[in-house]
């Protein structure tokens, strides 16, 4: 086994690694390095091995998500490597024992769900043209022109469309957050990526609220109809609810 240890996250000292989890990582096999109070979820790796592929990221998430199913876990930053087993205990677990213990207590009996909402652009752009006479007029003016003509009008139309979609994004984003917030202990809201991105909401959900949360998300998806595509990921490890570096 290699001396370097890849560190996935931190759990309580009495946690266990399921045999299926042990073989799902990116090194020699997932195991625990324990102190009296805490344990680090680690794996031996070749210290010269570069880390950063999509496969590595998937393995990192898979191990943490599996550990989260059986108890609280504090995820560490992807790519965290310490020199050996002693450094995991002496440089990570012991000096940060109080912080990790408090975080594990806060995260106990909770899991993260992430809702990602994206627009069907054909539907939403049709709405914009219907609702905005200025956009509709510019669209009509430029549609019959050759590509090398009407350039300023096309630029203006693009600006107006972007503004209209952003206004919808602001309004619809509130609808998404409001629908799931009552069933979440905390939320982290991120702006959607790309023209079709609406919003991404990470929710910290207590175990007893999971059914209600999932039902609220399903109702939201139905209410938004074919203009929005909803994707729900969870329960997963609480990546968005631990302090960053």
Main features:
9 strands, single chain, alpha+beta, 8 helices, about 240 residues
Polypeptide structure, described:
With 245 residues, the chain is an alpha+beta fold. It has eight helices and nine strands. It has helices at residues 19-22, 54-68, 85-93, 97-107, 121-131, 133-143, 151-180, 210-224, and strands spanning 4-12, 30-34, 38-45, 74-75, 81-82, 110-119, 186-191, 197-206, 228-236. Strands 1, 2, 3, 4 and 5 form a five-stranded antiparallel β-sheet that branches. Strands 7-8-6-9 form a four-stranded antiparallel β-sheet. Strand 2 and strand 3 (38-45) form a beta hairpin. Helix 5 crosses helix 6 and helix 6 (133-143) crosses helix 7 (151-180). The longest helix has 30 residues, at 151-180. The two termini are 29 Å apart. The relative contact order is 0.16. The mean pLDDT is 89.
Produce the secondary structure layout:
Elements: E1 4-12, H1 19-22, E2 30-34, E3 38-45, H2 54-68, E4 74-75, E5 81-82, H3 85-93, H4 97-107, E6 110-119, H5 121-131, H6 133-143, H7 151-180, E7 186-191, E8 197-206, H8 210-224, E9 228-236
Overall morphology: elongated
Give the helix/strand class: alpha+beta
What low-confidence regions span 5 or more consecutive residues with pLDDT below 50?
none
Q: For the record, give the distance between the C-alpha atoms at the N and C termini, rounded to a whole number.
A: 29 Å
Count of DSSP helices? 8
- In N-to-C order, the SSE pattern is EHEEHEEHHEHHHEEHE
Q: Could you give the count of β-strands?
A: 9
Q: Could you tell me the radius of gyration in angstroms?
A: 24 Å
Helix content: 40-55%
- Largest sheet features: 5 strands, antiparallel
Proportion of β residues?
A: 15-25%
Question: What is the typical, i.e. mean, pLDDT?
Answer: 89
């Amino acid at each position: 086994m290699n001396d370097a240890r890849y560190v996935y996250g931190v759990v309580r000292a009495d946690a266990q690694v399921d045999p299926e989890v042990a073989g799902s990582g990116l090194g020699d096999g997932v195991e625990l390095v324990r102190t009296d109070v805490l344990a680090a979820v680690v794996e031996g790796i070749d210290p010269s091995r570069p880390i950063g592929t999509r496969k590595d990221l998937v393995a990192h998430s898979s191990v943490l998500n599996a550990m989260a199913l059986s108890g609280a876990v504090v995820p560490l930053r992807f790519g965290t490597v310490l020199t050996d087993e002693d450094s995991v205990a002496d440089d990570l677990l012991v000096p940060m024992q109080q912080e990790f213990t408090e975080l594990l207590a806060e995260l106990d009996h909770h899991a993260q769900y992430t809702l990602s909402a994206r627009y069907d652009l054909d539907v939403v752009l049709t709405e914009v043209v219907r609702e905005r006479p200025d956009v509709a007029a510019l669209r009509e003016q430029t549609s019959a022109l050759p590509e090398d003509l009407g350039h300023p009008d096309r630029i203006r139309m693009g600006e107006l469309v972007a503004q209209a979609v952003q206004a919808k994004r602001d309004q619809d984003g509130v609808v998404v957050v409001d629908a799931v917030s009552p069933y979440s202990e905390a939320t982290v809201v991120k702006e959607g990526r790309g023209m079709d991105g609406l919003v991404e909401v990470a929710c910290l959900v207590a175990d007893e609220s999971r059914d209600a949360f999932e039902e609220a998300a399903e109702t939201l998806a139905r209410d938004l109809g074919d203009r929005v595509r909803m994707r729900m990921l969870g329960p997963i490890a609480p990546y968005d609810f631990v302090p960053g570096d």
